[in-house]
Write a sequence for this structure.
């Protein structure tokens, strides 16, 4: 059984790094989100099989529910991953605005002013990024989801002393 921190090193970090080099590639964004979500299964299995008395014995689904309540960023990542796999989800989730209606990351184009890229009396510069359009219509950038997800995992692994 792989230790959760080793799983991060071998799978999660490389998936995020590859996406960071290719931030407009949808399948790399989905792969990074998937690896962050799979970490929940690894942690649940590790805590169950390690037989540590300090860690509660629980099923993966129960662990994921509790984790989602403690860390809404990980609940959103779970919904994004499940939505990609299964389409519309019929379960209740702990987040108010989730990606549970078959969403996948979509390219969003915006316009802005950037240092050294704007001339007087010229239009703003175009830029794009990948985002999930959540059930309430808001956009959640993939970069934000991954950053918040990894911060949440850092807190959770510290809490579990892993």
């Amino acid at each position: 059984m792989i230790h959760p921190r080793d799983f991060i090193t071998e799978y999660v970090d490389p998936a995020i790094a590859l996406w960071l080099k290719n931030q407009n590639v949808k399948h790399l964004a989905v792969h990074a989100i998937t690896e962050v979500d799979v970490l929940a299964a690894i942690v649940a299995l590790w805590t169950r099989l390690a037989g540590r008395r300090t860690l509660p014995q629980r099923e993966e689904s129960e662990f994921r529910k509790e984790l989602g309540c403690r860390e809404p960023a990980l609940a959103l990542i779970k919904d994004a991953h499940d939505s990609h796999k299964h389409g519309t989800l019929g379960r209740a989730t702990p987040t108010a605005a989730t990606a549970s209606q078959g969403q996948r990351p979509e390219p969003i184009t915006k316009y802005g002013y950037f240092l050294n890229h704007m001339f007087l009396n010229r239009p703003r510069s175009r830029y794009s990024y990948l985002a999930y359009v959540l059930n309430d219509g808001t956009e959640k950038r993939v970069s934000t989801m991954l950053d918040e997800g990894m911060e949440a995992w850092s807190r959770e692994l510290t809490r579990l002393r892993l």
Remarks:
- The first helix runs from residue 4 to 21.
